[in-house]
Amino acid sequence: MDREERLLAYMQDKLPADARRQFEAEIAADDQLAAEVAALRSARAEFARQDAAADLEAGWASLTEALDAERPVAANTNRPVKLSLAQAAGLVLASVMLWQLAAVPVLDRIRTEGYAPVTEAASGPILQVMFAGSAEMGDISEVLRSFDGSILDGPSAMGVYRISFPSEAQRDAARAALSDRPDLAVSVTIE
User: Fold this and answer.
1) Which of 48, 53, 126, 138 has a CB 3.0–4.6 Å from the CB of 191, allowing a cystine?
2) In this structure, what DSSP letter does residue 127 have?
């Protein structure tokens, strides 16, 4: 069985236990293979999310159609109000003036002075980590805590987290620890 067939069997959970353990060891040793597995897992999750969204949308359309069919017809069907261009412009102008007179003074009092960043700039060495889909948050937190690591952001669209450390030594130690745990991280790289 070549690598592509084993990868497909692994993703479909069709490998025997011994072959699965051997293949997971290959994944841990090969960053390229780990990235392929992570990409396939992300794609699978995205397809499942899209299918669920399509099912939900179809359900809403069906429900709306059923409700519309049961809606009674009004006894008097008045024509909708039609505004001339001048009337519509007048309403827009009145709305803007009302906003300027009522809301803007209140908002100006609330607004703070100057620029204030939402987050502070990242300091210290950073790792980029793609965690395994089966990784428990408690296990991740335990490893990060032991090396004083802090999650800066993530997951990205590809499932990558950026983690900051106080020193390069702690970052390198965390990288080694995460690389030794294929059940926890599928890809660990230095930024």
Assistant:
1) 126
2) E
